[in-house]
Write a structure and sequence with these properties.
By secondary structure, the chain is an all-alpha fold. Helices cover 69% and strands 0% of the residues. The chain has one domain. One of its GO terms (cellular component) is membrane.
Length: 314
């Protein structure tokens, strides 16, 4: 970790990541496979794609302590739970509703970062966050709570939002001392193990799926995972977890538009207006969010979630 300055404008990789993760909900909707199987193979293919880059940092494994390995396992567990909850929500509710609730992630991340890292955010940044969240709520306002099934989907999306916030906060802590490639590979491998155990316990078939489903598994690995989650993990070296979470607010805009074009999910005027407000709030937040300096380690944190120093969070 010798560099603490990004050599390209931060908005470029952020926009690439937002576009990539916006396709995630579309791919999930297109597949008929159980979400736990989609999540598992999504990460299995990602591991194969990452392997050549990860091997370059193989020597770094010797410096990882047992405590850090446990945190990596914990981060992977929360990532698996995120995919399980959020991808499950897409089977019960609309893309707009699911991604809207997922966009509330900055609320949990900022709260966790404050208690875990004593990380403060400027008032203008908070205003930007509130504006963006207001726009996000407008996008999905007409869809949320339409039926019991929609409510169940909403609850799953909220649970997915909470656990991904924890995942990201752990990442912010570990990436201070662990190369991004090692971090992502270890976390994804941990998540695959969790998924495999889950599928085995519930007797969910892990083979016998159509060529279409296998193609979607691969697309999930390449587009939203590599160009989305892996990219955001790398960016955590240069910006705060709250900044990454705020950038992800762009996902509801992209996902809702894609759902309109590819899934024939209709959009209301409030959803169009909300999308514009999300982008405005996102820009204002990013403009007023400080760059995280790597030479200033976070304050020790205590959290009931991690039974020790805390963890932070798609």
């Amino acid at each position: 970790m010798t560099n603490d300055t990004l050599k390209i404008p931060v908005f470029i990789p952020l926009i690439i990541g937002i576009i990539a993760i916006s396709f995630s909900s579309i791919f999930v909707k297109w597949s008929d496979a159980p979400v736990s199987v989609q999540g598992m193979y999504r990460l299995v293919f990602t591991l194969f794609l990452m392997l050549p880059f990860t091997l370059k940092h193989i020597k770094a494994l010797k410096s990882i302590s047992l405590r850090k390995w446990l945190l990596l396992l914990l981060s992977g567990t929360f990532l698996a739970l995120h995919f399980l909850f959020w991808m499950g929500s897409l089977k019960l509710t609309t893309v707009a509703s699911s991604t809207i609730l997922l966009s509330l992630q900055p609320v949990f991340v900022m709260a966790g970062a404050y208690f875990a890292f004593r990380e403060k955010t400027s008032k203008p940044a908070i205003i930007g966050m509130l504006v963006a969240i207001t726009g996000a709520v407008m996008i999905g306002w007409g869809d949320i709570g339409i039926s019991k099934q929609h409510i169940q989907g909403d609850i799953l999306s909220i649970l997915g939002t909470i656990v991904v916030a924890v995942h990201m906060l752990i990442g912010q802590k570990l990436l201070k001392t662990i190369p991004a490639a090692i971090y992502s590979f270890s976390v994804f491998l941990s998540a695959v193990i969790v998924f495999a155990g889950y599928n085995t316990l519930l007797h969910i078939p892990m083979t016998g799926y159509s060529d279409k489903d296998w193609g979607i598994f691969l697309l999930l690995a390449i587009v939203p995972t590599v160009f989305g989650h892996v990219l955001f993990n790398w960016l955590l070296k240069y910006v705060t977890a709250a900044t990454i979470s705020m950038a992800i607010l762009g996902e509801p805009v992209g996902a809702t538009l894609l759902a309109y074009l590819l899934l024939n999910e209709t959009l209301t005027f409030s959803q169009w207006a909300g999308g514009a407000i999300v982008l405005l709030g996102l820009y204002y937040f990013l403009k007023n969010t400080r760059i995280l300096k790597k030479d200033k380690p976070p304050a020790p944190i205590k959290s009931p979630v991690t039974a020790g120093p805390i963890v932070k969070k798609g």
